[in-house]
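Problem statement: downstream parser choked on a complex file, so we are re-checking the raw output for the beta-D-glucopyranose run. The parser issue turned out to be on our end (a line-ending mismatch), but while we're here, posting the original submission so the record is complete.
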Amino acid sequence: MRTFLLVVVSAFLTLAQAPLALAAEPDAFAAAKRLGRGINLGNALEAPSEGEWGVTLKPEYFAAIKDAGFDSIRLPVRWSAHAQKDAPYTLDPKFCERVDWALDQATQQGLVVILNMHHYDEIYQDLSHAPRFAAMWKQIAARYRDRPDTVYFEFLNEPHTKLTDEAWSKLFAEVLREVRRTNPTRPVVVGPSQWNSIHNLSKFTLPEDDQHLIATFHYYLPFQFTHQGASWAQGSDAWKGRKWPQSPEEQAALAKDFATAAQWSKEHHRPLLLGEFGAYSAADMDSRVRWTNAVAREAEKHGFPWAYWEFCSGFGAFDPQSNQWRAPLLKALIP
Ligand code: BGC
């Protein structure tokens, strides 16, 4: 009898606590979880014009991503190259239709999609671009207000230089207020300055009252390994040949960085997304595979969804010539 009573009482307590636990967890955590394992469709729509960097999106790409077992796509877009230079900064309707198509493809495949703004190079150097930035987001938000809740927004990739954590936190809050008029609960992804550095998480601030935000960071450390031979990283030719043997010290450094991020997430009650990580193709394949596997697993250990950088270009997990996945890289991502 006592045992029976104990069971009944403990079952009652569990049930009574369940709604509380659910209510206490902001739904951004559920939204973050849905991102699961993702991949960036890089070098396509964020090139100065699509195709200029060698990638033109095809329906098969979305299907291949879904079939391989990914849950989500991050879609980098260079909106700033497709909007008027002066007020009212109207977005080019033809270009918008292309983005519509890409969102349709992702949604039809059952993939969650993060629509971002990438390479707005001018605003990093000159904050007088803020009104144009806000006006573009106002248009994007209105255009996609009726999209399913599997379409997320990310306002700006890798803020840096003039967009310090202070300036960026302020601008982000202003633009968010505007976007919330048309998209009151859509998940919005946002990361700190210094190119979304993991070490800047503690330096930026998010609007307290918005519970639909997913914080993000990018991870390319050790940079001299991941960016060896990358033309846009100064001096990177000298780093060629650097390996990543996954020494205890390397593994410990990775674990420490991610533990710091997890601590930030816990203290701030915000979910975290690892929005980019990858090692460039100039590094040896074995090291890339070890590093990619180690980073993805470390993220998963802390419950961070992730998006690999990127699909089929210089970091590519997919070979667009043979239309095949690079099997070791794919296995490192999805074991
Ligand atoms: C940039 C890419 C670059 C990658 C790795 C991204 O955020 O937009 O151009 O290839 O980071 O450096």
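For whoever reads this later: Residues 118, 157-158, 276, 309 surround beta-D-glucopyranose (CB under 6 Å).
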